[in-house]
Amino acid sequence: MKRLFAKIKSEDGSIMGMVFIFFIILTIVGTAFLTMASQESMLSAKQYHRTRAFYRAESGMNIALWRINHGADSYGTFSTDSVAVEFDTTTHILSAVGNSGSTSQTLQVELFQDHPFNRIVSYRTDLDTSSYYLDNMRGHDIETYYEVPQVDMPYFSSIADYYHTGDISFSGLMPAGIHYINGNVTMKNGTVLNGTLVVTGSIKFVGSVTINAQLIPDTTIFYPALVTGDTAHTSEVDGNPNLIINGAVYSSGVVDFKGQEISGPIIANKVILRSGVKIDDHGVDKYYHYPPGFITEDHFDWEKRRVKGSWRTEF
């Protein structure tokens, strides 16, 4: 009997030890779970604030872009309790810092100012089309503007290689360079110009005519192929006009073309395209630059848009 009690006492000690060890294990596991739950809660809260700060910054940028395009550029800089936005008018960088809790998110994007020379066809008052072919790079589509650039005729007069006074007609191969005509012009069948034609009055194209714009020295920007202060149109009397213009066409008045190929862009108050006009930039953007000889683009408050690929996020 004594041996039995001794054995039970011995086993009681072992059981107590096992219970104690098991209690320690449960305590460790429970503490670990509580710690994980606490960390998970903290991570969840941090992620919540990061996401909220990001959306606040993005919202601030959208508001700033709307303000810039509906008022002065300075309106793009503002701040609230949840976001601070700044638009640098020199670098055209729009920055926004969104805040949530103790977390902030910074977004930046570069803006560019859209302008009529950035489009395949730009007009202010009217666009009249009946039968034409159009093929252009994405983002350079037809667009209407509340105003088009104003040409600086004295600038072209001062840099002209050839100056003509009075109404004049051209035919055959013309000397290369900038031709300034203070009057009206008729370009007859077989005329070829490698350069720029600047006309204070109107210009009429008869038959086959080719104008190829030239690069501005030491730059990658082209002079316009054609600048007229009045109207540029294809002759109605010629049955098969064949006008080829490689470069920008600008008119303070009307551009009225038919039966020709333009590699564009075309900029005018009113644009008329008919009878099989082909406008094709051939998949290159070499003519989509704001050239000299026009009131600076900063003078106009044209719409600003995000530069593709310039979006940056800072955590």
What does the model show?
It is a single chain. The chain folds into two domains: 2-112, no CATH class; 116-299, no CATH class. Helices cover 24% and strands 38% of the residues. The chain is built from two helices and 23 strands. The protein has helices at residues 2-69, 153-159; strands at residues 78-79, 83-88, 93-100, 103-113, 121-129, 132-135, 143-144, 162-165, 168-170, 177-182, 185-187, 191-199, 203-205, 208-212, 226-228, 231-234, 242-246, 249-258, 260-262, 266-274, 277-280, 304-306, 312-314. The strands form two sheets. It has a 17-stranded parallel beta sheet that branches. It is elongated and about 120 Å long. It starts with a helix and ends with a strand.
Number of helices: 2
Which outline best applies? elongated
> How confident is the prediction overall: mean pLDDT?
85
Strand content: 35-45%
Short description:
The protein is an alpha/beta fold.
Topology overview:
Elements (H helix, E strand, L loop, with lengths): L1 H68 L8 E2 L3 E6 L4 E8 L2 E11 L7 E9 L2 E4 L7 E2 L8 H7 L2 E4 L2 E3 L6 E6 L2 E3 L3 E9 L3 E3 L2 E5 L13 E3 L2 E4 L7 E5 L2 E10 L1 E3 L3 E9 L2 E4 L23 E3 L5 E3 L1
Parallel strand pairs: 5-7, 5-20, 6-21, 8-10, 9-11, 10-12, 11-13, 12-14, 12-15, 13-16, 14-17, 15-18, 16-18, 17-19, 18-20, 19-21
Antiparallel strand pairs: 1-2, 2-3, 3-4, 4-22, 4-23
